[in-house]
Each structure stands twice: as C-alpha cells, then as structure tokens.
Design goal:
Radius of gyration: 31 Å
Helix content: 40-55%
Largest sheet: 4 strands, antiparallel
Shape: elongated
Order of helices and strands: EHHHHHEEEEHEEH
Number of strands: 7
Length: 252
C-alpha cells in the first residue's frame, strides 16, 4: 500500500515593503527670501492711500483752516518719520523699544503742555500754531504710487535670488536664468537673530544664518519675513530622515 503524498505548499512570499509615511505638517520645500528694507515702508504707504481716499471724498478747499487736511498731514509726517527711523537705526532689544516710546511720550507731553499752557513755552507755542502742513489727495496718491512701485520692483528682484530648503538638500537659485547651486542639507545648522524690534513687529522678520556642512562661509539672510514659522518649519524638516525602501523580489 503506497503512502499518500501530501500536496506541496507554495513558498510564502516576503512581506511587502512598508514605505514610511511623510510627517504631517512638514512641507516638502521651504523658500527663504531676503528682502530689502523698503518693505518696511508699508505703513507710510497705507497712510498715504487712506489720506488720499479721505481727502478725495471730503472734497474741501485746501487751506490752513481745513483742520482735516492739517491733521492728516501731521499724521502722515509722523508715520513717515517713524518709518525712516526704523530704516536708519536698529533697536535690538526691548529696552531700546521702551526708551523710544518714553521719548515719544515726552515729546507729545511737551506739545500738549505748549498748547494747553501757552505761557510756559511761548516760542514753542507760536511755532506749533504756525506749523500747519497741507497736502492734497494728489500728493498722497503720488507718494503711494512711488512707494508701491519701488516696493513691488524690489520684491520681484528679490524673488530671483532665493534659497530653497528640502529634506536632503539646500538649493540656491539666483539670476534671471535660474543659476543653481546645491548644498547638502544633513548637518545644516540654523541660527535665528532678531536684530530689530520694530522690524519684527512690522513683518515678524529677522536674520537667518545657515551653516552649511563643508562650507567655510555661512549663508546670511537678512529681513526674512515670518522668521519664527520659517525656523520652526526648517527645524522640523531637517529633523526628519527620508528613507526610500526598495526590494527586488525574485520571481520563481
């Protein structure tokens, strides 16, 4: 009696490779652009547009008795002066910001004292009363158009020289024809610097210093807007390791 032969079972197949899922919330690429300081002039641009629109709807004769026009001119000059100070000086710490506001408060207090008590500062009072700057809506529109065009051109030019961070490499694209330099991303060290309190308040901007592995000179990017989000995204991206799993299954 012959023994029954058991059917031969097929060899088990190797398990399919499990591909790592990308981490949620981490972008595939991060663009880093260094903008010129003209972008911080947008408060003056906004005040000029608001003043031009208001005077256009007000449609009153431009004369020293026009209180609305005088007040708008004083506000515009104040914002312009503050903007110019932001561009001219650096306020690196909160103490500098506090000192600036103290000086502004003292100046405003002196102006109010001279207006309410004319006998204390007679020369200052007479000067302030004679100071009645005037400008029509055409002037404000001209300032707004000039600032807007210069800012737009500066932003477009800056977009032709930017850095692109990826999980495994750092790209530097520059020029009209898109010249490209590649650097390794592993080992990249990032330093974030907030050099000016006012610039941070206006656009949350600061300086990013990229220390590329194998490069002697660090990459310095000034006036990077929303620097906190950029630094956080870069830290998350460079903290992950992309691994591509491949398997060659032999067919039998």
């Amino acid at each position: 009696m012959s023994e029954a032969l058991e059917p031969e079972l097929p060899a088990p197949r190797p398990p399919a490779p499990v591909k790592p899922k990308p981490a949620t919330g981490i972008p595939a690429r991060i663009f880093l652009v260094s903008y010129p300081k003209i972008v911080f002039m947008y408060p003056t641009l906004l005040v000029a547009v608001a003043a031009a629109v208001y005077l256009g709807f007000l449609n009153q004769p431009l004369e020293p008795a026009n209180t609305h026009a005088v007040v708008l001119a004083v506000i515009f000059l104040g914002v312009l002066a503050t903007n110019m100070m932001v561009l001219a000086f650096d306020f690196p710490r909160a103490t500098s910001l506090t000192l600036f506001f103290i000086l502004v408060a003292l100046a405003l207090a002196c102006v109010l004292l001279a207006v309410l008590q004319p006998g204390i500062f007679p020369y200052v009072t007479s000067t302030l009363r004679a100071f009645r700057p005037l400008a029509n809506d055409t002037f404000y529109w001209t300032v707004a158009v000039i600032l807007g065009l210069i800012t737009l051109v500066a932003i477009i030019v800056a977009r032709f020289d930017y850095w692109e961070a990826r999980p495994n490499e750092l790209l530097h694209r520059r020029g009209l024809w898109g010249d490209l330099d590649r650097f390794p991303a592993p080992g990249l060290r990032i330093d974030k610097e907030i050099g000016d309190v006012f610039e941070y308040l206006l656009l949350q901007s600061g300086r990013l210093v990229l220390h590329v592995s194998g490069e002697r000179r660090a990459v310095v990017l000034d006036n990077v807007p929303f620097i906190d989000k950029k630094e956080e995204a870069l830290t998350q991206m460079l903290g992950t390791l992309q691994v591509e799993v491949r398997s060659d299954t032999a067919s039998g």
